[in-house]
């Protein structure tokens, strides 16, 4: 197949190592991240794709490939978890950024259980990855071509959530979301690395302050860290019908839904050639759509770009 407009024809990795430090949105804990290039994805000691390595005292405690089989349901984020219970939370912004920067192979070393939230958006990741540069690899770029429509639905009436993916010649999204006081928001367009970087990546995680405080307390009671690291510096906090400090982008909330959706679908291992339509998407619904697509083996195929 020919390369879709805006994408490169070869697979790639980082040109040099990337390091980042921040705090987790849910745990509030400091975390260091080191992303290492993988230049030979066919080597016996290397794994193709994106791999997370939890490190403690410079020793590996768990190894997790970013794939649907390791996804574990969590409130307000996406988690990869091994059979021994150890995992890495809040991977979606980083996975979206690696996919959008066409970094197909890398090892993400992390010394805590949660990827740092940074400023609540994917923009710091995009800027850091671009600063490191991309090294082209000899393998042709792969896409997942959608061959027939697949849909998932949850709820009914005003609470109905619906997601659908269908064949298209490029990666497209149409996402709608509504929030009381802000009205109906929609983002519709072709998803390319440049579009993601300029129109999607700057959008921040958001939430109502009146909802966050009870969630934090409930998390302490249940022994599950939720939003302990949430601050105005790493979220778009909503009070009443306004965002403290204002919005970065028009319809920032729905754009962040697109960001999360891109990151969750990145667990498939490649960009889609298909159109994703979503009404009120969530992490759980994103994964349900991905799982439904992959379960129907005649609904998709791997395809390579011509070199």
Point out poorly predicted stretches. none
Overall mean pLDDT stands at 93
Number of helices: 6
Classify the helix fraction into a percent range: 10-25%
Alpha-beta classification: alpha+beta
* Overall body shape: globular
- String of helices and strands: EEEEEEEEHEHEEEEEEHEHEEHEHE
Rg of Cα set: 19 Å
Active site: 283 (proton donor)
Pathway: Glycolipid biosynthesis; lipid IV(A) biosynthesis; lipid IV(A) from (3R)-3-hydroxytetradecanoyl-[acyl-carrier-protein] and UDP-N-acetyl-alpha-D-glucosamine: step 2/6
EC number: 3.5.1.108
Function: Catalyzes the hydrolysis of UDP-3-O-myristoyl-N-acetylglucosamine to form UDP-3-O-myristoylglucosamine and acetate, the committed step in lipid A biosynthesis.
Any chance you could write out the topology, listing elements then pairs?
Elements: E1 10-14, E2 18-23, E3 30-37, E4 50-56, E5 59-65, E6 71-74, E7 77-81, E8 87-89, H1 92-100, E9 106-110, H2 123-132, E10 134-140, E11 142-146, E12 150-154, E13 161-167, E14 171-179, E15 183-190, H3 193-200, E16 206-208, H4 209-222, E17 236-239, E18 242-243, H5 252-265, E19 272-279, H6 283-295, E20 300-304
Parallel strand pairs: 4-9, 11-19, 14-19, 16-17
Antiparallel strand pairs: 1-10, 2-3, 3-9, 4-5, 6-7, 7-8, 11-20, 12-13, 13-19, 14-15, 17-18
Helix pairs in contact: 1-2, 1-5, 5-6
């Amino acid at each position: 197949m020919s390369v879709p407009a805006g994408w490169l024809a070869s697979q790639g990795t980082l040109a040099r190592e990337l390091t980042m430090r921040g705090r987790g949105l849910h745990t509030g804990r400091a975390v260091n991240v080191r992303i290492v290039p993988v230049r030979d994805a066919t080597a016996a000691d290397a794994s193709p794709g994106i791999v997370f390595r939890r490190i403690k005292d410079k020793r590996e405690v768990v190894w997790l490939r970013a794939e649907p089989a390791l996804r574990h349901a969590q409130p307000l984020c996406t988690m990869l978890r091994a059979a021994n219970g150890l995992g890495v939370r809040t991977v979606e912004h980083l996975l979206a950024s690696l996919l959008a920067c066409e970094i197909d192979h890398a090892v993400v070393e992390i010394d805590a259980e949660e990827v740092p939230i940074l400023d609540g958006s994917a923009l710091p990741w995009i800027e850091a990855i671009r600063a490191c540069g991309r090294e082209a690899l000899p393998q042709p770029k792969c896409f997942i071509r959608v061959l027939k429509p697949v849909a998932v639905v949850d709820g009914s009436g005003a609470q109905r959530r619906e997601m659908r993916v269908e064949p298209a010649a490029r990666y497209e999204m149409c996402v709608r979301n509504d929030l009381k006081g802000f009205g109906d928001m929609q983002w519709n367009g072709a998803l390319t690395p440049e579009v993601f970087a300029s129109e999607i990546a700057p959008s921040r995680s958001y939430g109502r302050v009146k909802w966050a405080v009870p969630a934090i307390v409930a998390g302490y009671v249940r022994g599950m860290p939720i939003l302990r690291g949430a601050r105005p510096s790493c979220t778009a906090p909503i009070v009443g019908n306004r965002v403290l400090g204002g919005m970065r982008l028009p319809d920032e909330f729905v754009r962040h839904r697109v960001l999360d959706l891109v990151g969750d679908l990145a667990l498939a291992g490649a960009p889609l050639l298909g159109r994703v339509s979503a009404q009120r998407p969530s992490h759980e619904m994103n994964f349900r759509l991905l799982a439904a697509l992959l379960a129907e083996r005649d609904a998709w195929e791997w395809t390579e770009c011509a070199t």
